[in-house]
Protein: EPS15 homology domain 1
Amino acid sequence: MPAMMGKAKAQQRLIDNLEDEFGKVQREHHLPAGDFPNVEHFREVLSGYTFDKFEKLKPKMIQAVDDMLGYDIPDLLKSFRNPYD
Structure:
């Protein structure tokens, strides 16, 4: 039971410091602030979840998504006609 209490406290700390966590992620990954959700709304949403039930991040999967967004989708969009031309 003490381990569960520690996890709950850690989760609450993260939720309480969500703005700082967003800032860390923003700096680490060079993301614009506008890419992040409203902090208060996200706090409410996160309060309904148990963090230790989330799947762990897989760096390979993150890289695959980054490559898709950076290369695959732009290449795909080139094949569509621009309606503004």
In short: The two ends are 64 Å apart (CA to CA). The chain has one domain: 7-79. The helical segments are 2-16, 18-29, 39-46, 59-78.
